[in-house]
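thread: overnight batch results

M.L. [08:02]
morning all. the overnight job finished for the chain we discussed friday. pasting input first so we're all looking at the same thing
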Amino acid sequence: MKTIKVVAAIIQSFGKDGESLVFATQRGYGEYKDWWEFPGGKIETGETPEEALVREIQEELAVIITVDRYLTTVEYDYPAFHLSMDCFWCSLTEGHLTLLEHEAAKWLPLSDLRQVDWLPADLIVIDAVENELQKGRSQEIGFEGGI
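M.L. [08:03]
and the structure it wrote out:
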């Protein structure tokens, strides 16, 4: 089975009440159109995962991010391929979020993370995000505001 190596950004912000928010995007194309995912994409030859993530987020959302720290790697078998996805906590450093490839986007509070239809591999990431945020280990990264 073919393996596709990708990266995903878990972009965190904080609401007016200090509640942690996580950015999610809805796919606007392909077999999994309308499913929700963390933004990111494929690693190109010669790129580190962090370099790929900065490039992909700039291409998809027209912003510059800082890759703050590693969260998890998800290994998932879809029917046609094996996905290996490195996931990182990221913060926005420049620009305003603009959807260039996605149908929609949301800032989701921890309590609503499971209220959208996530791609199966991204559900595994949700487990890791919830675990970190519930244990209070997340860094205060991100920015105030939304899309």
